[in-house]
User: Which sequence fits this backbone?
């Protein structure tokens, strides 16, 4: 069964919707967002703090291959097991601002589920910048690879 | 880097996005494009210059008239950048799925 992630980012809107169906019962999908050890495994980030409750907060830290550290944090507004998480999200020291994330977990069948992440940005420009980031990084990586090959030829 | 030539900078502006939508279906002259906006004609001309400079729009000469149309190749690059973002999440979710398939609940 092929599962594909879908992105809806309408022109001129400061929001973004990511949807994905999983070959997992909704309980397991939710657990992947609930347990720090699991988050660390699939997101490749360190979980410094995670309080899964209203008024709780979280703090993640990712280290790139060069050793640079990137911080992420936010506050949890709603935490309903196997149903919904509403939280803020901030990628520290970036121009993306603070985003509001509403994550809905739905059961499709006993063994399949669906995740919908609705993200609202402070502005359209910030949303567009966030969308461009992986593309820009891809370009940089392609450029670096090219540079390495060229260096070897010298 | 000249920001004006940056495609992403170009589409960050709502008027420029509206212009792209407008000429997506048909070639139009600067005058015909400007007629769709409240902005002053020189403002629209400036937007057209930026879009042309970063190659999202192409000019076509027909007698004395200059028509603008969308450059599909450059527009494809734009859809590719969303694809890069989608791929990032797709990879992440594939990882989630494989991690959770191996997961054994603690007793």
Assistant:
């Amino acid at each position: 069964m092929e599962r594909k992630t879908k992105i809806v980012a309408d022109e001129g809107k400061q929001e973004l919707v990511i949807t994905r169906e999983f070959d997992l019962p909704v309980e397991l999908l939710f657990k992947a967002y609930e347990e720090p050890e699991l988050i660390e495994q699939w997101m490749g980030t360190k979980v410094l703090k995670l309080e899964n409750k209203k008024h709780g907060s979280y703090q993640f830290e990712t280290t790139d291959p060069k050793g640079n550290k990137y911080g992420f944090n936010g506050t949890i507004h709603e935490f309903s097991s196997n149903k919904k998480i509403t939280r803020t999200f901030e990628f520290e020291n970036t121009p993306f601002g603070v985003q509001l994330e509403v994550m809905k977990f739905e059961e499709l069948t006993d063994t399949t589920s669906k995740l919908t992440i609705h993200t609202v940005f402070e502005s359209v420009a910030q949303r567009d910048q966030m969308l461009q980031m992986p593309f820009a990084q891809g370009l940089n990586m392609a450029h670096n690879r090219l540079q390495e090959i060229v260096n070897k030829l010298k | 880097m000249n920001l004006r030539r940056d495609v992403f900078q170009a589409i960050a502006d709502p008027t420029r996005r509206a212009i792209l939508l407008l000429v997506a279906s048909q070639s139009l002259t600067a005058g015909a494009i400007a007629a769709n906006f409240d902005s002053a004609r020189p403002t629209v001309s400036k937007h057209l210059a930026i879009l042309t400079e970063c190659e999202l729009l192409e000019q076509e000469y027909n007698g004395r008239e200059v028509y603008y149309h969308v450059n599909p190749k450059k527009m494809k690059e734009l859809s590719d950048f969303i694809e890069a973002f989608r791929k990032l999440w797709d990879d992440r979710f594939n990882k989630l799925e494989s991690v959770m398939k191996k997961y054994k609940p603690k007793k």
Chain B has a mean pLDDT of 85.
